[in-house]
Amino acid sequence: MSDLWRGDWTTRTRIITGLILFAFAFFHFLNLGLGLFSDAAIDWGQDARHVVTRNPLGEMILFAALLIHAGLSLFKLAARRSLRMPIWEATQVALGLIIPLLLIKHIVHTRVAHEMFGVNDEYGYITVLLWDTVDGAWQAGLLLIVWLHGCMGLHFWLRAKSWWQRWLPALVGFAMLIPGFALAGFLTQGRRMVLLFQDDDTRWALMEDYHWPDRDAFTALIAIADTLLYAFWATLALAAAFYVIRKFLSWRKSVHIQYTNGPEVSAFKGLTLLEISRANGVPHTSLCGGRGRCTTCRVIIEQGGDRLHPPSAAEARSLAAVKAPANARLACQIRPTHPLTVLRVFRPDGTRDRAHASQGEERRLAILFLDMRGFTARTTGQLPYDVVFLLNRFFDAIVPGIIGANGTVDKDLGDGLLAVFQTEDEKSSAQAALKAAEDISTALSEFNAKLVEEGGAPVAIGIGLHLGDLVLGEIGAAGNAPRTLIGDSVNTASRLESQTKELGVELLISASVLQAAGHATDGLSLQEFQLRGVSEPLTALPVKHATALPQLLATGQG
Ligand code: FES
What we know:
Helices cover 56% and strands 14% of the residues. It is built from 17 helices and 13 strands. The protein is elongated. Residues 286-288, 290-297, 330, 332 line the site of FE2/S2 (inorganic) cluster.
């Protein structure tokens, strides 16, 4: 089925009935425009239309379409959970609600007058009836409202179609012509009729021809129109009551959340606070995606905390790890059942559409921490320009080794850097990091050879390689949020690099990198380290020169 007909039966029925009414309005307005030419032309058009609209089947389809379209639209409006809607939709709904108020009189004084009193409701009769009256102005307004309502409906139904987009400018121009043509026809026809009515004999003849209603008939028609209007108001009131009652019932099943410096929202009980934020478009940082691990979703409960369930052991552990105050909770772990006032500790920028990276992505990846040895001693007494020159040459030499192995430099740290290997999986990431370490070492040897040739001292480096859980996210104010790596693994890699200094080696590789890369560690001289700031002892492989890494891993000797 074409995507134009997607949706439930009510949507499809509204579309079909809307199309029937739109077609009726289109030909009705074209017919009215024929008044520009002559009485005969407008009458000819009306007779032609009546072949369809005044035969029993056509009439039944038309009135059924009108009632069903209006009824379903009203029901859809009343059944909404919220009246918040885009401005174009609100405009279309408002126009749709005005139409019956004006259309009822129109139908009563034409179709009903014809049926009850035998009135010949030709355009001439209508234009004379409406000429120079407030009702005439309202009926001209009705024409514009109906046309605009119909065109908007058609546009929002077809707008996704490429052919519609292509033809849109021409169609808009055409759509603007129709009401202009119709109103010009109405005015021209009206003028003609008023002139004719100035002559007594002609007026009596025309009134007889139209079966002009007498005073009693008009009184009856006005009473009918008023009754129908009351019925419409009563239907509107019913729809409003339906909306309010549903809202009230769902309110009883819902919970209210007031965000400090943010909106007040309500949502069904049972959702986590983070889900409530998401459902209501409230920006809420959640770097681990709601898994209770990052604590970036945490909130301070300013009111209502006493009626909140106590934290689970996992939530309490996470909060304790960040030394959160007693009234802090994790939004992804709490399910409010009573009103709460909460302050988001980490507020995103407040706009809704930040890049996906802003939300953070958790990955298990290899990282490389590199530092130039003895940088301070080496550069003491040198001109700053010389220092900058040396550093740039150094990085120019080694960074291609990282990039060539599918790594990226995440941070430049003056005389060092942090690189990450964001590949498909942890195995390829670990292999890439090992390759980068080897290539850096090779590049450094060549760089040092040049330095020595120039009479300088060679540069020594230390590299720490580790693989672990990381969160990659853009952290900072909107528009100024560089990609950042967060996680204990970064600290571990940095500590491994520091340890190389004490060991007098170039590279220290944690066992997790070797294992992830698929290397057996049995024959390697792994050592256990208690690194500063790392709670568990860590097993790692010291490597004197990273250039020897392939051979070392192949032979299984540390
Ligand atoms: S989103 Fe990470 S702890 Fe809640």
